[in-house]
Amino acid sequence: MPHNGTDIAAPTVAVVYHSGFGHTATLADAVAAGARDAGAEVSIVAVDTLTEDDWNLLDGVDAMIFGSATYMGNVSAGFQAFAEQTGRRCMNGAWRDKVAGGFTNSGAKSGDKFATLSSLAVFAAQHHMHWVSLGLGAGWNSSTGSENDLNRLGFWLGAGTQTDVDAGPADVHPADVATCRHLGARIALVTRQLNIGRSVSPAAPVPAASSAPTR
Ligand SMILES: Cc1cc2nc3c(=O)[nH]c(=O)nc-3n(C[C@H](O)[C@H](O)[C@H](O)COP(=O)(O)O)c2cc1C
Questions:
Q1: Best substitution site from 106, 155, 164 to test ligand 1's pocket, by max atoms within 8 Å of Cβ?
Q2: PROSITE patterns under this entry (predicted)?
């Protein structure tokens, strides 16, 4: 079913994440706070405790912001298990034309997080969603920059953050919290703009599926 947006005043956004040790969960809260500040109605959904109500919520929102810890240079097994549970929705186009974005956190400064963000973007594309970039220039990349810059690790595809492996969930870097807040606000804004556009020009009709879902 095409997604045409329902409430122009308050876009609905779900932050959908997996976190094994709590760091990504803290950043999910920051993404949610940014989206809320920008006027969205926000839900936070942990993919390892999904209920039927959560699935229904995801089917109804205007935008999803996916977050996963980086494990072994990619999304966590927990996030991938969630992704694989969406196969029928993918075939049916249940999330088609929703807005999407993503964030990831790792232990190393790089940590191969690009691979994780790429996986999240491909997941969104398989659902025919509209991926939104981070929308920030690179921080901490000049003699006057510092680790306190927004986007301190220089990602464009989404938010890439880093937390020391021996730190607690409350010890995520403040610049990373700010970067994630920015991502949430940006996606709320883009979603609102898209909803307003759709109120005068609805999303395109869905083309016929190339194959029927088998299960
Ligand atoms: C199984 C496993 C694999 C990991 N793989 C990576 C990795 O590829 N790159 C990296 O920088 N950190 C890696 N880490 C460290 C985590 O990304 C880091 O501790 C992160 O903050 C965990 O986020 P979470 O608290 O949301 O689970 C790994 C940790 C675990 C447990």
A1: 106
A2: FLAVODOXIN, FLAVODOXIN_LIKE
pLDDT (tens digit, 0 to 9) for every residue of the chain, 215 residues total?
345 545 567 999 999 999 999 999 999 999 999 999 999 999 999 999 999 999 999 999 999 999 999 999 999 999 999 999 999 999 999 999 999 999 999 999 999 999 999 999 999 999 999 999 999 999 999 999 999 999 999 999 999 999 999 999 999 999 999 999 999 999 999 999 999 999 998 877 777 665 555 54
Between the CA of 214 and the centroid of ligand 1 the distance, in Å, is 35
Dist. CA 75–CA 122, nearest whole Å: 12
Q: How far is the CA of 7 from the centre of ligand 1 (A)?
A: 37
Q: Among residues 169, 187, 179, 151, which one has the least CA distance to residue 69?
A: 169
Task: Give the torsion through C-alpha atoms of 51, 122, 209, 206, to 10 deg.
Answer: 80
φ/ψ (deg, to 5) at 131: -75, 130
Q: Note the residue count of the chain.
A: 215
Instruction: State the alpha helices, DSSP H only, in 16-110.
Output: 23-37, 52-60, 77-84, 87-92
Of ligand 1's atoms, which has the minimum distance to the CA of residue 109? 11
Looking at this protein, which amino acid is placed at residue 73?
Answer: G
Atom 29 of ligand 1, nearest CA residue: 71
